[in-house]
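Q: what does this look like with zinc ion bound?
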Amino acid sequence: MKYPAVFLDRDGTIIEEVGYLDSLDKVELLPGIPEALSALRAGGFKLFVITNQSGVARGLFDETFVHETHEFLSRKLKEFGCSVDGFYFCPHHPTEGRGRYRIQCNCRKPKPGMILQAVKEHNLDLSQCWMVGDKMSDIMAGKNVGIKAVLVLTGYGQKAMNELVEEGYLDVPIAKDMKEVAQIILESKKLK
Ligand SMILES: [Mg+2]
Ligand SMILES: [Zn+2]
């Protein structure tokens, strides 16, 4: 049995967008996140956080800090009786990176490397997967593996909405927050 999943961007999608998140006291869940994630779980979806963290490449923080952030975030979610099934991050940047982090990798969104890795490691059914985020690179990461994507208007969402319209991607659903994202995804599943 293969599982349906929702891939979630992190910054601006489930936690506040604060630029480069470099300390745990800046980690704030956006309003309604535990409820939205719990609703998706109850609908049978596995949940994965898929995040570009070029702050590592830029030398602003290290990979250990990103892991600590994800453990902290997991504990916060657990307080609300909620969880995700995994975290994937890209520490690279093609031009700004230091040393081994300055590469054209396959994981930095809009590339779909992290999605494909999660699919492989967790036995996911790509045809039943969704990508959710607040930037064009999130939407394109989804489109680049042929899955459905939802733009959320938190974080950089307003800017991304203008870009979506300019570039003619009029088929991408737009949600004001994660609660609305969950409704769109669950409704679509029901229609099948
Ligand atoms: Mg984001
Ligand atoms: Zn990468």
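The helical segments are 33-42, 54-57, 63-79, 113-122, 136-143, 157-166, 178-191. Residues 90, 92, 105, 107-108 surround zinc ion (ligand 2) (CB under 6 Å).
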